[in-house]
Write a structure and sequence with these properties.
By secondary structure, the chain is mostly helical. Helices cover 66% and strands 1% of the residues. Strands 1-2 form a two-stranded parallel ribbon.
Amino acid sequence: MAVDAAYLMQFVDETSFYNRIVLSHLLPSNLWDPLPHFLQTWLRNYLAGTLLYFISGFLWCFYIYYLKLNVYLPKDAIPTRKAMLLQIYVAMKAMPWYTLLPTVSEYMIESGWTRCYSRVGEVSWILYFVSIAVYLVLVEFGIYWMHRELHDIKPLYKYLHATHHIYNKQNTLSPFAGLAFHPLDGILQAVPHVVALFIVPIHFTTHLGLLFMEAIWTANIHDCIHGNIWPVMGAGYHTIHHTTYKHNYGHYTIWMDWMFGSLRDPLLEEVDNNNKDSSKKAE
């Protein structure tokens, strides 16, 4: 039992180290040092998540709307400042609740309830990468069905997911829309990351990194730029999701939509739209 307790202390020491790194650079020590470990962890996740959201959002917007103006998007497809400010407002209201999820997951890991391990050296490199692959497949499957049910179950859509789908045209979507959800909606769609911890062995820091990479990924898939990199579920696919409401529920890849019959290809969509326009002109 003493060995187990000593092993679990590695997780506590690691989260304490992350807390000190982030909080000591952002806040005076008298504001965070007296807090219990759980609250320190939440505060670290909240501040880190907020910084990641703003840095990734502003850099990406600056690149595609200013440096590359009319390269990726025509000027009339760029969302208004008002639309982006609304997205930021919605995301900031939800951020304190979003960051409860990684805080709770870290508590469960520190308590020994999950299959997380502390050091990569505890397993072979092959097992490390295989476990990441299995973890991501489980996350992809879970997010696909969670997202799809948030559409199919009408009360869930009306009271939760509809908050995100007010952005339903190309010129209302921006990288800042990536986290503009009802708090419970955002948490539900991230829950597969935590559920997977109980199923597959995963390296602790890798889990945290993948969870926080969500902020960057969601910014990317809301920029309306189709990267056309198979089998990635890029912004071209996700823009169709925001305009049709019944296609492309997947997260990282198109595989789940392909398997379950909800895939719609943006290139085929463009061909269909061009054919419709040609038919109208012919009339």
